[in-house]
Known about the structure:
The chain is of the alpha/beta class. A 9-stranded mixed sheet has the order 3-6-5-4-7-8-9-19-18, sandwiched between helices. α13 crosses α14 (about 500-510). The longest helix is centred in the middle third of the chain and has 28 residues, at about 705-735. The protein is globular and about 95 Å long.
Amino acid sequence: MPLHLTSRSGADGGAVESDDREHKRQKIDGEAATSVTDPKLDDCVPSKLTNLSNPDAEMAPQPTSDSANGAAAGAAAGGGGEIVIDEDLHSRQLAVYGRETMKRMFGAKVLISGLNGLGVEIAKNVILAGVKSVTVHDTVTVTVQHLSAQFYLSEADVGLNRAQACAARLQELNKAVDVHVHTAPIEKEFLGGFEAVVFTDLPLDQAVEFDAFCHAHSPPVPFIRCDTRGVFGSIFCDFGPSFTVTDVDGEDPFSGILASVANDSPDALVTCVDDERLGFQDGDLVVFSEVRGMTELNDGKPRRVRNVRAHSFLLDDDTSAYGAYEGGGIVTQVKQPKQLAFRTLAACLHQPGEFLLSDFAKFDRPPLLHLAFQALDAFHKETGRFPAPGSEADGSRVVELVREVNGRVGKEAKVEEGVIAEGEKLIRQLAHGASAEICPMAAMFGGIVGQEVVKACSGKFHPLHQLFYFDSVESLPAEPLSAEETAPTNTRYDSQIALFGRSFQARMHNCSAFVVGAGALGCELLKNLALMGACCSPPGEKPAEPVAGGGVTSGGSVPLSGKGYLTVTDDDTIEKSNLSRQFLFRDWNIGHAKSSVAADAARVINPALRVNALQNRVGPQTEDVFDDTFWEHLDVVINALDNVNARLYVDSRCLYFSKPLLESGTLGAKCNTQMVVPGETENYGASRDPPEKQAPMCTVHSFPHNITHCLTWARSEFEGLLERTPSEANAFLSAPEKYCEEMMGAGDAAAREALERVVECLITERATSFQDCVSWARRKFEDYFANRIKQLTYTFPEDASTSTGLPFWSPPKRFPSAVVFTPDDPTCLAFVTAGAILRATTFGIEAPDWARDGKKMAEAVAKVAVEEFVPKQGVKIVTDEKATSAATSVGDDGKAIADLVGRLKDGSKGLSKEFRMVPVQFEKDDDTNYHMDLIASLANLRARNYTIGEVDKLKAKFIAGRIIPAIATTTALATGLVCLELYKVLQGAKAPALRNTFANLALPLFSMAEPVPPKSVKHKELTWTVWDRWTVEGDVTMQELIDWFQAKGLEAYSISCGQALLFNSLFPRHKERLPRKVLDIAKEVAKLEVPAYRRHFDVVVACEDEDGEDVDVPLISIKFR
């Protein structure tokens, strides 16, 4: 089916080839996916707007009714119905924004004008976020130069309108968002139909006019103007005279558990238990609940706090007339909306106010750049173009214009002449690169602006208020480039060449890179690298074919093709939840290997890309794949990982082979980047975040006091019941005698508990029908939520005391009560339904259709007989916070194990030899598998036991599934920053030019700093760091190795390999090893095996100097072949 797009008035009509690449387009109207090859732009008619989800309909955005901040809080398209969010698709995004915010976003219409590299980045991020519609506008036709940063354009699109050329690909990103195309010049009245408008490449005069209209409109239309010029960028935001921020930072409200409240006037001292530090700040509002005695605090009235300390604060309230505090209570922060007043662009030009800073080492630059960007606009207005790269005359004119602008702006915006004179180099750098657009800047600013659009449409997070200027001049060459170096080549790389030169571009083509991970970060990085020309065949050379041998490599080195090669690896496959931020993937890619699909998509962006996609995990087990030769050929490693252990391993490899590592990570609206450069910076593993605080085992199992404890317990019970126990049962069924011998040999409480579970599973509670599974689930309910609680309160009654005489049930402990099963209660029934279905799965029993019918399930449950609870004497319940296991000894575990083994052997005789259970592995992202139904009901019923607030299934999924909040905007920002650093690394930049970054788009906050240098060690004239590795050439003897150190003035007294000691001067017998080869000793003592592909092995040497002081020397690598 041909894709119909309409051209702007006056544009050439007729059928034009849009693209000679194959691509697919998923239709929005619910029909099957259609593969479209060589789509034509036929039957073009003069019209302003096209709806890509219904190409035959000519549409124009209609003004929305008044709503807070002008954002549509309304319903889904089609008439006021309830908006339904696809939680499988948007789960990671929901963890950042929440349902209400996303519903507001889904009602918003957004205009993005200017589909250059920055414009398409913004459009991509906004469409992935999910709004009602995005209208892309452009009047510019595609040239080869636009391919420098616009990833949805190809050479086949040259001559087409930019918006028309890329709109179909934008539509593929999210079929729930209507993508419209507008190609006529915009009149200001057109803007009133949107909840947010974004302009790139908009002349200043027109920007002032459009912003004034949007500012005065009722309701105001949030207006954003943004540009990137070379390595410089600017953003202006105006969300109207009164904008409400519903949630400033997106963080969960802080809370604390009360320990005491004083009856004081005028300020009452409140103290909290010291299990966690309070997160309140002076001036915060808080509310109280569950307070005993001083019940007046439970009125729900927000009260202000001050003088906040780690575990106490003063309450701005007179509590002297309140009842005396008796105990209990929770204090919770009340997040307040914030009102912001924005000023127009015209006003901000003369009175800019405070600038948002990114690098505090450049705190004086924004005022100058505020003038310089206005001067650039004046130059363009004067000449009809931007300054030519390297043109001294154009640069001088821009400097003159800066002075002219400085003469007419308001007092607040003026800078001193000395500042202009000192900043003339900076102004010229801006002028010389003004006509160039590079993808790292587009990605970075696309992430920031995309997030501002979300804020404008939803009120979630604090907007940029109001001006932001940025530069990365450290990325530029240290010395000026000749005219020959920057001369255009009429290729897609001309923008980059204008900034960095032809020689650097050749270096970019020839670099060899390793991208570890092909998820959200990996997709963005591959896109950036393809656009930058990294690892690409030079223009005019035939594009490289994909390397044979891709996929999972099982042995030998990864295929290499000299320099200029990109290797990407990821052992994961694509899931539906990936599609909301991993933008290279489409729904028809689900189930395919991430690395392969991402590599193919990157080759579509730039067919010259030389890339090899693997599905190998990077770790010690794949060192035969990623061997010495592989690492030695690399120029740079870029991590795109989602866990610390993998990052540490890659860091250790980069440290060992002395390779630069570009590191980044995201968490919701936050991201960080770290540059690890040999000899210049500390390595990634040199500093660690403190470990995340874990709740004590006894708290999770018996004394929870928040929903996280309940969900942690629920996840543990799920895995114990449905995965570990069936696996344990299978271990017995596969080798009964061996299993029983091992249990008898262990003889501890853990072995006894494992046997108890297996006996229950295979004998006492063995299921042969689905009704058996229903009975098991109902009895489990009684065990978990009634009997165990009754036993706990029998052992520790409400008035129990500790050995020191203090109340046992003092905060943070909460006294529990049993839950009575009620079939009419949805949570009770959900537990039994999910439990029965999953129990049936482990026994290979098919659940009948009626199992999903609540009424029939209630009838089945009613048939189950439940025994009356009788408390037991002498039951031991773990209360020690240092305990690591809930298993408690029964006095003679050995005898109990022997009895259990006997029961197991006797009871299993009737089982078929082929019978095996089916372990169920937890999968959070499939809402049809009942996994989250069981975990959510487990957690909520336990929360009900302890009067803890319950949560819905989505919130339960976030916590129990350990979902990492993720959004596309933050990912784009992080990878843009990484690729700006890549320019520096490939030019051999030193530490002062490098930048590590922490950013929080919610605030927004940017903090850039020079990396920390590596710790250095000095000995005589020698200096070394962790980056140094001393190499000893030859197959040396132990004596030769010791002599090698003596030549450096060091006494090697101990030499080890792995965990084995090869030599120690204190051991007389070790002197016999002095004439032997170190390699032979290592093979004999350390059982060292050196693979054929490895030419060296490593030893650790302990040394001391002439004064007997220990000296920490680098790792020693003996290159024996």
